[in-house]
């Protein structure tokens, strides 16, 4: 669209994936205000994105409208982002034609670091990180140990995986 002024045939797989993803957001994961927190997914049918149709034609129409609205809003947002960053897009496209694969370090050299802080521990798993994988795992273990010690000292128990506290199990 940005380069040729129209959507090319190369976008077919992208359109297929975004359509499946949008339908999943609306009908499987319950992440839509109009449809609500409901899932029409039937795990007994099997396979990816298979679901039964236990809803009316009116609901089907609403689902289609919500999927279309979601795809349209994401398309507009993406189009704006790529238009705003057309220079960077060109730089990346040239490098991809040359190298085929770009890594994060390549991206940082070409277009700079991300303009926001990362919420991941990615740096802990890279050679340039400040923390090794072993250190990251030890830090996580310390959090669990500290939590268990606090529970023992205060007598407060947290919920277990089953959703009941250890105090509730005693009753």
Automatic annotation (TrEMBL):
<feature type="region of interest" description="Disordered">
    <location>
        <begin position="128"/>
        <end position="171"/>
    </location>
</feature>
<dbReference type="GO" id="GO:0046872">
    <property type="term" value="F:metal ion binding"/>
</dbReference>
<keyword id="KW-0645">Protease</keyword>
<dbReference type="GO" id="GO:0006508">
    <property type="term" value="P:proteolysis"/>
</dbReference>
<feature type="compositionally biased region" description="Basic and acidic residues">
    <location>
        <begin position="135"/>
        <end position="146"/>
    </location>
</feature>
<dbReference type="GO" id="GO:0004222">
    <property type="term" value="F:metalloendopeptidase activity"/>
</dbReference>
<keyword id="KW-0067">ATP-binding</keyword>
<protein>
    <submittedName>
        <fullName>Peptidase M41</fullName>
    </submittedName>
</protein>
<dbReference type="Pfam" id="PF01434">
    <property type="entry name" value="Peptidase_M41"/>
</dbReference>
<dbReference type="InterPro" id="IPR000642">
    <property type="entry name" value="Peptidase_M41"/>
</dbReference>
<dbReference type="InterPro" id="IPR050928">
    <property type="entry name" value="ATP-dep_Zn_Metalloprotease"/>
</dbReference>
<feature type="domain" description="Peptidase M41">
    <location>
        <begin position="1"/>
        <end position="110"/>
    </location>
</feature>
<feature type="compositionally biased region" description="Basic and acidic residues">
    <location>
        <begin position="158"/>
        <end position="171"/>
    </location>
</feature>
<keyword id="KW-0378">Hydrolase</keyword>
<dbReference type="GO" id="GO:0005524">
    <property type="term" value="F:ATP binding"/>
</dbReference>
<keyword id="KW-0479">Metal-binding</keyword>
<keyword id="KW-0862">Zinc</keyword>
<keyword id="KW-0547">Nucleotide-binding</keyword>
<dbReference type="InterPro" id="IPR037219">
    <property type="entry name" value="Peptidase_M41-like"/>
</dbReference>
<dbReference type="GO" id="GO:0004176">
    <property type="term" value="F:ATP-dependent peptidase activity"/>
</dbReference>
<keyword id="KW-0482">Metalloprotease</keyword>
């Amino acid at each position: 669209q940005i380069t040729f002024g129209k959507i090319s045939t190369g976008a077919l797989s992208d359109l297929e994936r975004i359509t499946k993803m949008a339908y999943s957001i609306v009908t499987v994961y319950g992440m839509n205000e109009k449809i609500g927190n409901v899932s029409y997914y039937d795990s007994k049918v099997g396979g990816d994105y298979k679901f039964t149709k236990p809803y009316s034609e009116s609901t089907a129409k609403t689902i289609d409208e919500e999927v279309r609205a979601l795809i349209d809003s994401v398309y507009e947002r993406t189009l704006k982002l790529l238009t705003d960053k057309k220079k960077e897009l060109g730089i990346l496209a040239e490098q991809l034609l040359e190298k085929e694969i770009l890594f994060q370090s390549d991206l940082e050299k070409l277009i700079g670091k991300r303009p926001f802080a990362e919420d991941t521990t990615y740096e802990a798993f890279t050679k340039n990180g400040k923390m090794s994988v072993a250190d990251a795992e030890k830090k996580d273990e310390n959090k669990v140990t500290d939590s268990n010690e606090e529970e023992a000292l205060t007598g407060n128990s947290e919920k277990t995986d089953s959703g009941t506290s250890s105090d509730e199990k005693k009753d």
